[in-house]
Amino acid sequence: MLSEILIDIQGLSFSRGDRPIYRAMNMQVQRGKVTAIMGPSGIGKTTLLKLIGGQLKPDSGKILFEGRDIPRLSRSELYQARKKMSMLFQSGALFTEMTVFDNVAFPLREHTKLPESLIRRIVLMKLEAVGLRGARDLMPAELSGGMARRAALARAIALDPELIMYDEPFAGQDPISMGVIVRLIRELNNALGLTSVVVSHDVTEVMSIADYVYVVADKTVIGEGTPEQLRNDPSPLVQQFLRGEADGPVPFHFKAAAYQDELMELTR
Amino acid sequence: MIADRLQRIGHSTISTVAGFGRAGFMLFGALLGKPDFRKGFPLLVKQLYVIGVLSLLIILVSGLFIGMVLALQGYNVLVKFGAEGMLGPLVSLSLLRELGPVVTALLFAGRAGSALTAEIGLMKATEQLSSMEMMAVDPLRRIIAPRFWAGVICMPLLALIFNAVGILGGHLVGVEWLGVDAGSYWSAMQANVDLYQDVMNGVIKSLVFALVVIWIALHKGYDAVPTSEGISRATTETVVTASLAVLGFDFILTAVMFGG
Q: Where does the ABC transporter domain start and stop, copy by copy (chain A) (predicted)?
């Protein structure tokens, strides 16, 4: 029986230069569930995904993926682990010099020795799943933003990973493609038995698909639970974030000297 | 005040040395390990086309004109001593020893080097390199290595083409226009040009320049700040740094090869 917890983050600390991003953070991702990580922009949500993917190394703490500590893995072990996870980047990050078809075929051609006829079938299946089978001969530059993200999603599921990480999947999408992506995340998660981690600040969308939500701010987790539990969370910071209030524990004003003093300075 | 200045000097020294270190690691990571010819060869061929074949036009045109100008200027001096028969050696030696490798490297830095930096910088900015890493494909091996080898293979060949076209250009002006005897143009050239001393040293020079230019171009792209401003700065830096490095190395190599 596989362990229920796919990713277990324990006491994670990470800083960029002198600026601490995370301090002693704990987080767990359940296998087969959609786990969302929400928080204001600029607090390093993407950084967290890169830490899980082993692209960045934490200052201290453990990031266990299937029980193995990602930062401690050797290079080849890390590459083996990465074959089981995939990441959907905010921009899609399709390879601009290849067609959509070749983009989706890329991980298959790199990591398997399957014959081209079988690769073609797999690619068409993945493209069908995201509704872009007809767009297979287009170049990434010819796709709209929403289509590019769906094509990237097809590429991300090409190798049937255990884990898929979505970096701001809803950012900058029109309502229709937003709806398409929300549906895709949920359906892929159920149909393929994936584990999904969604990083986002779009409260409504996230609350509608997530099984479990972490709210991250102030370098650590400030609230967690199912969407229902979170709505009843007593923390004012969580409530400010969920309701999108401009002022509250997260101040509207960037840190500055007292207003009056600065105004008076001019007249002096 | 003095402490401030010292600190700034120290800071820029450290960041320069760190840059060298990152460039070294990048090249090390790209070239180390056993090559996979089945996957690598098609990538190399594509880059040979992009880096080499597409640079041909500028190399051909520049080579032709530099050869013609050399012949014109050389003739004007040589004719005063009645030595216009030595025009062949003058044109060919100037090209083989110096102008061929150096001008090719400068043009290559401007044409192919800047394009490489911009391409890789843009791949970084659009997270293509990151996503490749997350797909367990090493971008150093997949993106950097084929471009590096393509550059190293192309540049000496381009320099040789530049030389050949330049010598033809010299012939065009010297013999066809100014009336130098065709026989003496070619025979004096044949008598005065040595395969090892002149031709091979030129090839060695352009091989060194190739390493320098392509390494700088790839590193600047790979190390670029992933914004539009960062990429434009990296592209400029590639052309400036690579050109200066080529001229510097040219002096050192000339001193070693022809100084003694």
A: 7-243
